[in-house]
Design goal:
- The chain is an alpha/beta fold.
- It has one domain: Anticodon-binding domain (Rossmann fold, 3-Layer(aba) Sandwich), CATH 3.40.50.800.
- Helix content is 20%, strand content 40%.
- It has three helices and eight strands, in the order ββαβαβββββα.
- The strands form two sheets. Strands 1-8-7-4-2-3 form a six-stranded mixed β-sheet. A two-stranded antiparallel sheet has the order 5-6.
- Strand 5 and strand 6 form a beta hairpin.
- Helix 1 packs across helix 3.
- It starts with 22 loop residues before the first strand and ends in a 6-residue tail after the last helix.
Protein backbone atom coordinates (compact mmCIF):
# COMPACT_ATOMS: atom_id res chain seq x y z
CA UNK A 1 0.00 0.00 0.00
CA UNK A 2 1.27 3.47 -0.84
CA UNK A 3 0.74 6.08 1.83
CA UNK A 4 -0.24 9.53 0.58
CA UNK A 5 0.56 12.56 2.67
CA UNK A 6 -2.32 14.76 3.75
CA UNK A 7 0.15 17.64 3.51
CA UNK A 8 0.32 17.26 -0.28
CA UNK A 9 -3.23 16.35 -1.22
CA UNK A 10 -6.61 17.63 -0.07
CA UNK A 11 -8.90 15.13 1.58
CA UNK A 12 -11.83 14.97 -0.82
CA UNK A 13 -13.10 11.38 -0.56
CA UNK A 14 -14.16 8.99 2.11
CA UNK A 15 -14.34 5.22 2.42
CA UNK A 16 -17.55 3.40 3.21
CA UNK A 17 -18.56 3.58 6.85
CA UNK A 18 -17.46 0.69 9.04
CA UNK A 19 -20.23 -1.73 9.95
CA UNK A 20 -19.26 -1.97 13.59
CA UNK A 21 -20.23 -4.91 15.66
CA UNK A 22 -21.22 -6.10 19.08
CA UNK A 23 -19.02 -9.20 18.75
CA UNK A 24 -15.36 -8.46 18.04
CA UNK A 25 -12.26 -10.54 17.45
CA UNK A 26 -10.03 -7.63 18.47
CA UNK A 27 -7.56 -5.56 16.51
CA UNK A 28 -4.50 -7.19 14.92
CA UNK A 29 -1.61 -5.25 13.40
CA UNK A 30 -0.77 -6.61 9.95
CA UNK A 31 1.85 -4.14 8.74
CA UNK A 32 4.22 -1.59 10.26
CA UNK A 33 6.22 1.15 8.56
CA UNK A 34 9.15 1.73 10.95
CA UNK A 35 9.65 5.19 12.39
CA UNK A 36 11.90 7.43 10.31
CA UNK A 37 15.42 7.78 11.69
CA UNK A 38 15.17 11.56 11.24
CA UNK A 39 11.86 11.88 13.10
CA UNK A 40 11.74 14.50 15.87
CA UNK A 41 10.31 12.10 18.44
CA UNK A 42 8.87 11.78 21.02
CA UNK A 43 5.83 13.91 20.21
CA UNK A 44 4.03 15.72 22.99
CA UNK A 45 1.19 17.62 21.30
CA UNK A 46 -0.68 15.55 18.70
CA UNK A 47 -3.66 16.44 16.52
CA UNK A 48 -5.77 13.30 15.98
CA UNK A 49 -7.73 12.96 12.73
CA UNK A 50 -10.03 10.08 11.72
CA UNK A 51 -11.12 10.07 8.08
CA UNK A 52 -14.32 7.99 8.10
CA UNK A 53 -17.57 8.46 6.24
CA UNK A 54 -19.70 9.32 9.27
CA UNK A 55 -18.99 12.28 11.54
CA UNK A 56 -20.16 10.29 14.56
CA UNK A 57 -17.72 7.47 13.82
CA UNK A 58 -14.89 9.95 13.32
CA UNK A 59 -15.68 11.62 16.62
CA UNK A 60 -15.78 8.35 18.57
CA UNK A 61 -12.52 7.00 17.15
CA UNK A 62 -10.71 10.29 17.73
CA UNK A 63 -12.05 10.51 21.28
CA UNK A 64 -10.85 6.98 22.05
CA UNK A 65 -7.34 7.67 20.68
CA UNK A 66 -7.08 10.97 22.58
CA UNK A 67 -8.10 9.24 25.82
CA UNK A 68 -5.56 6.46 25.35
CA UNK A 69 -2.81 9.00 24.64
CA UNK A 70 -3.81 11.00 27.73
CA UNK A 71 -3.58 7.83 29.83
CA UNK A 72 0.02 7.48 28.61
CA UNK A 73 0.82 11.10 29.45
CA UNK A 74 0.70 12.58 25.95
CA UNK A 75 -1.40 15.64 25.15
CA UNK A 76 -3.66 15.19 22.11
CA UNK A 77 -6.66 16.96 20.60
CA UNK A 78 -9.41 15.44 18.44
CA UNK A 79 -10.04 17.34 15.21
CA UNK A 80 -13.80 16.82 15.65
CA UNK A 81 -13.65 18.81 18.89
CA UNK A 82 -12.84 21.85 16.72
CA UNK A 83 -15.39 21.31 13.95
CA UNK A 84 -18.92 20.16 13.19
CA UNK A 85 -20.63 18.35 10.31
CA UNK A 86 -20.57 21.53 8.18
CA UNK A 87 -16.84 22.15 8.52
CA UNK A 88 -14.95 21.36 5.27
CA UNK A 89 -12.74 18.29 5.69
CA UNK A 90 -9.80 19.70 3.78
CA UNK A 91 -6.06 20.10 4.10
CA UNK A 92 -6.51 23.81 4.89
CA UNK A 93 -8.89 23.03 7.77
CA UNK A 94 -6.42 20.69 9.44
CA UNK A 95 -3.42 22.95 8.86
CA UNK A 96 -5.32 25.76 10.58
CA UNK A 97 -5.87 23.46 13.57
CA UNK A 98 -2.17 22.62 13.71
CA UNK A 99 -1.28 26.32 13.74
CA UNK A 100 -3.83 27.09 16.45
CA UNK A 101 -2.80 24.20 18.70
CA UNK A 102 0.92 24.40 18.07
CA UNK A 103 0.92 20.65 17.38
CA UNK A 104 4.23 18.89 16.77
CA UNK A 105 2.62 15.85 15.08
CA UNK A 106 -0.58 14.79 13.32
CA UNK A 107 -2.05 11.29 13.61
CA UNK A 108 -4.34 10.28 10.74
CA UNK A 109 -6.46 7.10 10.62
CA UNK A 110 -8.52 6.00 7.62
CA UNK A 111 -10.05 2.87 6.11
CA UNK A 112 -7.73 0.95 3.81
CA UNK A 113 -10.04 -2.00 3.13
CA UNK A 114 -13.54 -3.19 4.01
CA UNK A 115 -15.31 -6.50 3.38
CA UNK A 116 -18.87 -7.25 4.47
CA UNK A 117 -21.20 -10.20 4.20
CA UNK A 118 -24.83 -10.16 5.31
CA UNK A 119 -27.13 -13.10 5.92
CA UNK A 120 -30.37 -14.11 7.62
CA UNK A 121 -30.16 -15.81 11.00
CA UNK A 122 -32.91 -17.46 13.01
CA UNK A 123 -33.44 -16.09 16.49
CA UNK A 124 -33.19 -18.43 19.47
CA UNK A 125 -36.63 -19.76 20.41
CA UNK A 126 -38.03 -19.16 23.87
CA UNK A 127 -40.10 -21.89 25.49
CA UNK A 128 -42.19 -22.30 28.63
CA UNK A 129 -43.01 -25.64 30.15
CA UNK A 130 -46.02 -26.52 32.29
CA UNK A 131 -45.60 -29.94 33.92
CA UNK A 132 -48.46 -31.44 35.95
CA UNK A 133 -48.92 -34.84 37.58
CA UNK A 134 -51.72 -37.16 36.44
CA UNK A 135 -53.78 -39.82 38.20
CA UNK A 136 -51.33 -42.44 36.95
CA UNK A 137 -48.12 -43.35 38.78
CA UNK A 138 -45.02 -41.72 37.27
CA UNK A 139 -47.00 -40.22 34.39
CA UNK A 140 -46.89 -36.47 33.85
CA UNK A 141 -48.76 -34.05 31.64
CA UNK A 142 -46.41 -31.73 29.81
CA UNK A 143 -47.52 -28.59 28.04
CA UNK A 144 -44.97 -26.75 25.88
CA UNK A 145 -45.43 -23.19 24.63
CA UNK A 146 -42.76 -22.02 22.22
CA UNK A 147 -42.19 -18.51 20.86
CA UNK A 148 -39.81 -17.97 17.97
CA UNK A 149 -38.76 -14.43 17.04
CA UNK A 150 -38.57 -13.46 13.38
CA UNK A 151 -35.17 -14.03 11.72
CA UNK A 152 -32.79 -11.06 11.65
CA UNK A 153 -30.03 -9.81 9.36
CA UNK A 154 -26.51 -10.37 10.66
CA UNK A 155 -23.50 -8.60 9.13
CA UNK A 156 -19.98 -10.00 9.25
CA UNK A 157 -17.40 -7.31 8.64
CA UNK A 158 -13.64 -7.26 8.21
CA UNK A 159 -11.79 -3.99 7.82
CA UNK A 160 -8.26 -2.64 7.74
CA UNK A 161 -7.49 0.69 9.38
CA UNK A 162 -4.38 2.53 8.19
CA UNK A 163 -2.83 4.97 10.65
CA UNK A 164 0.02 7.40 9.96
CA UNK A 165 1.93 9.94 12.00
CA UNK A 166 3.13 13.12 10.29
CA UNK A 167 5.83 15.38 11.64
CA UNK A 168 4.79 19.02 11.60
CA UNK A 169 8.42 20.09 11.45
CA UNK A 170 9.29 17.89 8.47
CA UNK A 171 5.81 17.92 6.88
CA UNK A 172 6.01 14.24 5.98
CA UNK A 173 4.94 10.82 7.25
CA UNK A 174 7.37 9.36 9.78
CA UNK A 175 5.53 6.17 10.82
CA UNK A 176 2.53 4.00 9.88
CA UNK A 177 0.68 0.82 10.78
CA UNK A 178 -2.24 -1.18 9.40
CA UNK A 179 -4.58 -2.96 11.82
CA UNK A 180 -7.24 -5.51 10.90
CA UNK A 181 -10.43 -6.30 12.80
CA UNK A 182 -13.38 -8.64 12.33
CA UNK A 183 -16.87 -8.05 13.69
CA UNK A 184 -20.31 -9.64 13.72
CA UNK A 185 -23.35 -7.44 14.28
CA UNK A 186 -27.11 -7.64 14.08
CA UNK A 187 -27.94 -4.90 11.58
CA UNK A 188 -30.26 -2.90 13.86
CA UNK A 189 -27.79 -2.70 16.76
CA UNK A 190 -26.27 0.67 17.59
CA UNK A 191 -22.56 1.20 16.96
CA UNK A 192 -20.65 -0.12 20.02
CA UNK A 193 -17.91 2.06 21.44
CA UNK A 194 -15.79 -1.02 22.24
CA UNK A 195 -14.63 -1.17 18.61
CA UNK A 196 -13.03 2.26 18.81
CA UNK A 197 -11.43 1.51 22.17
CA UNK A 198 -9.77 -1.63 20.76
CA UNK A 199 -8.42 0.27 17.76
CA UNK A 200 -7.20 3.13 19.95
CA UNK A 201 -5.44 0.73 22.31
CA UNK A 202 -3.66 -0.93 19.38
CA UNK A 203 -2.58 2.38 17.85
CA UNK A 204 -1.24 3.88 21.07
CA UNK A 205 0.46 0.62 22.07
CA UNK A 206 2.55 0.71 18.89
CA UNK A 207 3.16 4.45 19.17
CA UNK A 208 4.69 3.87 22.59
CA UNK A 209 6.57 0.75 21.50
CA UNK A 210 8.23 2.59 18.60
CA UNK A 211 9.14 5.66 20.68
CA UNK A 212 6.84 8.18 19.02
CA UNK A 213 5.46 9.19 22.41
CA UNK A 214 7.15 9.28 25.79
CA UNK A 215 6.56 6.30 28.09
Amino acid sequence: MTYTSVWRTAVVGFSTAIALAACSSGSQVTRVQPVSTSADTPYQNILVIALLAKFGARKQLEKAVVQQLADLGTHAVASTSMMDTRTPVTRQTFLAMVDKLGSDAVLVSQLADLKQEAGMRDANPQATWNVRPTYYFNVWSVELTEYVEPPFIEVESSFVLATQVFSVRDKEAVWAIESKSKFVQEITQPRPYLVFIEEAETITKYLARDGLIAR
